[in-house]
Structures are given as C-alpha cells and as structure tokens.
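Hi all, long-time lurker, first post. I run a small reading group and we've been trying to get comfortable going from sequence to structure in the token notation. Rather than ask abstract questions, I figured I'd post a concrete chain and ask someone more experienced to write out its structure so we can walk through it together at our next meeting. Sequence below, copied exactly:
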Amino acid sequence: MLSNLVYDALWVTVKLATLTTLILMLVGLPLAWWLNASRSIMARVVESVITLPLILPPTVLGFYLLVAFSPDSFIGSQFSALTSRPLAFSFTGILLGSLLYSLPFVIGPLQSAFAQFDHRLSEMGRSLGYGRLQTFIRVTLPVCKHGIMSATLLCFAHTVGEFGVILMIGGNIPGETQVLSIAIFDAVEAMDYDAAHRMSLGLFVFAIITLTFINILKGGGQKHAGH
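-- Answer (accepted) --
Happy to help. Here is the structure in token form:
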C-alpha cells in the first residue's frame, strides 16, 4: 500500500500538470502561430528565449527563478505584499516555474503543426466572411488538431516528470510542493526501494502510454497533411 504522502504527491503532480497544460495551451496557440508566421528578428529572439530550457540545466533555471521569487526580489516582495505568502517554496511558485520550463514542449509541436498548415484554407475561410480570429478558431485549429493534441499530451507528461526546477523553487514540502519525482527521490534516500519502485513503475508506464498516443497522433497528422 502507498502512504498518504505518496497520494498527496500524486495530487500535487496532477494538479500542477493540469494547470500548466491548460495555461500553456491558451498562451501557446497564438504565440506559436505568431512565431511560425513572423520573420522578424523579435520573433527569433522570443523563440530563442522560449527554447532556453531545452539547453540550460534545470538547476540553473531553477536557481535564477528562486532568486527572482525570493522575498528580497521585486517579484517576490510584490507577491508577498498582495497575498501575505512567499512565492518561493509555494505551489504558485512551482506553477510559474513549470510554465517557463514546459513552454518549449508546447511551442515546438504547435509550430510544427502550423508549419504544415495549408494557408489556402485560411483564404477560403476569409472568402466565407470569417475574420482572422474566426478563421483561426474555425479553420486552423481543427485542421491542426493532431499537433495540438500532441502538444497537450507532451506538456502534461513533461510536467509530470519535472524534478530539478521544482526542487529548486519549491523545496520538498508534502502536500504543497512535493511532486512524485521528488517523492521517489525521498524514498530512495530513505532506502524504501519498494515505494520507489512502485512510483517509478507507474511513471514509466504513464510515459510509454503517452508517447504511444503522441506517435499515433503524429502519424495521423502526417496522413492528414498528405491529403
């Protein structure tokens, strides 16, 4: 049987992954569309900043976010003044860190999906009287649905597996910032290998299932693009 601490870590993990995915999909769809369509230097600079988490070690990103979220910083002090709570070592803190760390895992698949989009379909939408927003919602998004679903699954799965950034920003507070990956680390340190094995096996199976769905969606998207 798994302990209450493990169930708490599972709840924090699911809540973090769900909120991160929802927020990043809302932000990522228009952002990825703009990055794919724009040829400006500003777009390339923004794209470079977004993809930094793919290159930087998680501890580096986590360290600078910890400094930015500390009570002595402008962001941390303003948050504390508004909420009477610290930003570092809180669920809000790890959520903000997760948003930054998982953003490239949303933008990449979305840009690939939009790059394969046939813009003649947008012109057809406008000929039917749709505005730009209507065309984007009623034409572009349905056509790119496989890429959008892949980005959603990849973001959720990546957030579930986060460790370094979460540990740096949130520490290891049960029920607040302790996610499954940190609970596994704790179990290993406590030499509770049975619990570590059960949690690790669960995440391993989850990763295999998620990647299988992503590959199925990728294949469906390529067939759709070929038609």
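A couple of things your group might point at:
DSSP finds twelve helices and no strands in the chain.
The mean pLDDT is 89.
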